[in-house]
Design goal:
This is LPXTG cell wall anchor domain-containing protein. It comes from Mucilaginibacter mali. The protein is an all-alpha fold. Helices cover 92% and strands 0% of the residues. The relative contact order is 0.15.
Length: 24
């Protein structure tokens, strides 16, 4: 369970950073 949550958080964080960079 913890690994799954960590993986999801990592993916979301990566997409967020990519989105912010693309938006800027």
């Amino acid at each position: 369970m913890i690994i799954l949550i960590a993986t999801i958080t990592l993916i979301v964080a990566t997409l967020l950073i990519y989105y912010r960079k693309k938006k800027k």
